Amino acid sequence: AQSVTQPDIHITVSEGASLELRCNYSYGATPYLFWYVQSPGQGLQLLLKYFSGDTLVQGIKGFEAEFKRSQSSFNLRKPSVHWSDAAEYFCAVGARAAGNKLTFGGGTRVLVKP
Amino acid sequence: DVKVTQSSRYLVKRTGEKVFLECVQDMDHENMFWYRQDPGLGLRLIYFSYDVKMKEKGDIPEGYSVSREKKERFSLILESASTNQTSMYLCASSSLSGSNYEQYFGPGTRLTVT
Questions:
Q1: Which of A36, A80, B11, B53 is deepest in the core (most CB within 10 A)?
Q2: A65 pairs with which residues across the strands?
Q3: Tell me: the pLDDT tens digits for B49-102?
Q4: Is B60 within 8 Å of chain A by CB?
Q5: Is A45 an 8 Å CB contact of chain B?
Q6: Do A90 and B94 touch (CB under 8 A)?
């Protein structure tokens, strides 16, 4: 069975500083990996996804993520955080063998200090 | 533009009541999903459906049932609501075509059972 761990429950970062959110997954075959963002009172919006190919993936809102097979990780990064990036972020893993289902991590809540 | 709508943003019900949560998508997607979201636990899959009248249990189906009579509509039913079902409920849909596992989410229904 696949699983996803997001080790950081909360992260506080100053506006303009860099941000890195960690995601570790467990799955035997090549996974499909996703990062979603949930702003307060909203549903989830896809930031980026990795299926194959280049291991550095660019997403919306200036985010990027790097797939590292050797470390079973898919960490999300942003060079300079804006106040509007305050939200909860979810990493998810899917696989063809899982029949289009996604398994989500517990989420990381990001607070942005002015 | 992709759209998933949920019938209510906020719902308050009493213990023992039968509760219906409705989800509608306008993207002609084959797959539809119901999740519950709780702090620290991320999203957990309750039920999903690959086609009309088809349903499969997710990770936490106990106390829930679902109905999919039309392709665009997927209903979650709490037969006898209990206080431990107080949660945020999220509906999502995805397409089978092109191996696209991206799920599109509705805004969520925050259910309180008193």
A1: A36
A2: A57, A76
A3: 989 999 999 999 999 999 999 999 999 999 999 999 999 999 999 887 655 678
A4: no
A5: yes
A6: no
Strands (E), chain B: 4-6, 10-13, 19-25, 31-38, 42-49, 56-57, 65-70, 73-78, 87-94, 104-105, 109-113
Which residue is associated with the tokens 């996974």? A31
Q: Looking at the DSSP assignment, which residues form a beta bridge with residue B106?
A: none
Please tell me the total number of residues recorded for chain B in this structure. 114
pLDDT in single tens digits along all 114 residues of chain A = 788 999 999 999 999 999 999 999 998 677 889 999 999 888 899 999 998 888 899 999 999 999 999 999 999 999 999 999 999 999 999 876 666 788 999 999 999 999
- For chain B, the C-alpha Rg in angstroms (whole number) is 13
Backbone angles phi, psi at A102, to 5 degrees: -115, 145
